Structure formats: C-alpha cells, structure tokens
Amino acid sequence: MKHLLIFLVVLEFFGILDLPYAYAIPNNQPGLFITANMQFDYALNLFEQKDFNAAQVEFKRFIHFFPQDPRHDRADYTIGVALFYSGQYYEAAKRFDTIIRQSKDKDSPWVEQSCFMQSQAFEAMGNTGYAQIVLQNYLKLTRDTDTKDRIYLELARMHIRNTVTPGKNELAYARKNLMLISPEKQRKYDVATQLETIDNAVHAPTKSPVLAGILAIIPGGGMLYCERYKDAFISFCFNTGLIWAAYTAFDHDNPALGGVITFVESGFYSGNIYGSITAAHKYNKAAQIKILNKTFDFEPGLDPVNKSFFLRLTHGF
Which of helix, strand or coil describes residue 27? Predict the structure, then answer.
C-alpha cells in the first residue's frame, strides 16, 4: 500500500495522473498529507493572527495545489486584503483589479468587496481620484440597490474628506451622493443629520480674503480682521519698527542703510498682505471643519505620495 501511494504521488507530480484536489488517507499510513481544509485553515489562522505576509504565501499555496476548491475566490480576495493590511497598497490594488476583471458574476460578494477594497487601496496611496473612479465604474455594473447605496455613502465620505484639504470644497458633491441613497438606507445611515451638518458648513461664517488684503495695508490689520490677534501684534510691531528705522536712516543722511532696510521691509510688508489673505482662507476652512467635526470625526494622517499631512475622516458614516 505504501509503495502504491508513492507511485501515485509521483504520477500526479509529473501531471500524468489527474487526481481530485483532496485525498482520503488512512490514518495508519506514515508521512504528512495536507488536505485542502488543512491548508485553508492554516492560511486563515495566520491571517487572523495578523501575520499577513505568511498568510499571503499560504493562501497562494492553497490556490496552486487545490485549484478546483470552491473557496478559491475567497482565498484570492483574502490575499488582497493581506497585502492591504501589510501596507502593500499598490500590489493590493492590482490583486483586487484582477479579481474584478476575471469574475463573470459582477454581483458576486468577492467582486463587490474587491471594488471597495481597491478603492481604499488607492485612497491609502493618496490617490482619491482613482478611488472614486473605481466606485463609479462599479456603480454602472451592479444592479444591487444595497451596493449602490453603499457606494453613494462611500463617495460622500471621500468628498467630505477632500473638503478639509486647503483649496478644495466638495461638499456639494457629498450632498448630491447622500441624496441618491434610497429612502430606507437614508434612515439607517442617518443621512438627514449629515445633510444638515453639510448645509451648516456651507453657510459657516467666513472672512473675505480681499478685505483681509486691503486691511493689511496697515500692518497687522488683516490679521486682526481674521481674529489672529497675536500675529497682528507681531506684524504691526515688526513692520512699523522697520519703517521707522528706514525713516531714521534717511533722516540722518544715510541712504545706503536706509535703502537696505527699505528693501528688507518691502519683503516683510508684502508677506504681511499675503499672510492676511491666506489667514482668511484658513479661517474659512477651519470654520467648516469645526462644524463638520460635530458629526464626522477627523484624525491626522500622512499622504505617502506627497509626503504631507492631512485630516482623515474616520467616523460618522
């Protein structure tokens, strides 16, 4: 019996014999024989223990040695998730993209989850645009209402997160996506509260950047208008001090020194005006974030692509 088993294994190794993916092995036979269940459970156990690199290897072995097993799709998806949680976002996005393209059933749970995970992978890489495109493309393919509602909710979250970025305001897009959610899920997700928060943020008190720049003609005036009193005091004292020093130098027949001080002061004076305009924009953005933060929670994050900090939307959906 032992020699027969060895002979069958050799034939299977060279592809001569096409055996099923699992074998019934008598308990009294020596050696180690791994079944599909054993391999899958071992890989899943590694994944649950957050040993994601080892889990990837074992799931790949499962797919290779048991290609006909019905858990093939789940293993393939879990490899992508393991890549994501190990910080290999680009490789994870490629894995999920392969699952989406190769699947014939676009409404299968693994395709659906792959779309959302691929979107998250792009977002983790700092590419929110691609993350939105993935969801918008799947929105055109799926026929499931619950999935569509989830996509609308996720798109709204991304637009709100982008709004906290300086120079961006996507609250109108966020509102539009929230309104597209079905009435039943609007109640479940408490969309009414989210819409109210967005409306309050849109109509938040603002400071005019133009007026701030005009008021900055008097050093510190723009900062004072933007309620940055300490900066206003420093700007006023520093600029007036340099102006007085330049005047004194010219008054004492020292044009060379007066010219140098005037040149230096012109830079600080221009900075005073530019800083006041920027302060107005920052005031307006801070006012929006303060209102949004009453319903949506943000935390600091690092953009790995642009090497810059941003506010990440964590809760509220």
Answer: coil
Please state which of the ranges 77-91, 93-107, 126-140 shows the lowest mean pLDDT.
Answer: 93-107
The answer to whether the beta carbons of residues 171 and 159 sit under 8 Å apart is yes
Indicate the number of domains in the chain.
1
Q: Tell me if 149 is assigned to some domain.
A: no
In a domain, 145, yes or no: no
pLDDT digits (tens, 9 = 90+) for 107-116: 788 999 999 9
Is 249 a member of any domain? yes
CA distance 208 to 269: 20
Establish if 62 belongs to a structural domain: no
What is the residue range of 232's domain? 209-315
Q: What is the C-alpha separation between 98 and 83, in angstroms, rounded?
A: 14
Q: Number of helices and strands (H, E) in the chain? A: 15, 2
pTM of the full structure: 0.71
Q: Is 220 left (phi over 0), alpha (psi -120 to 50) or beta?
A: left
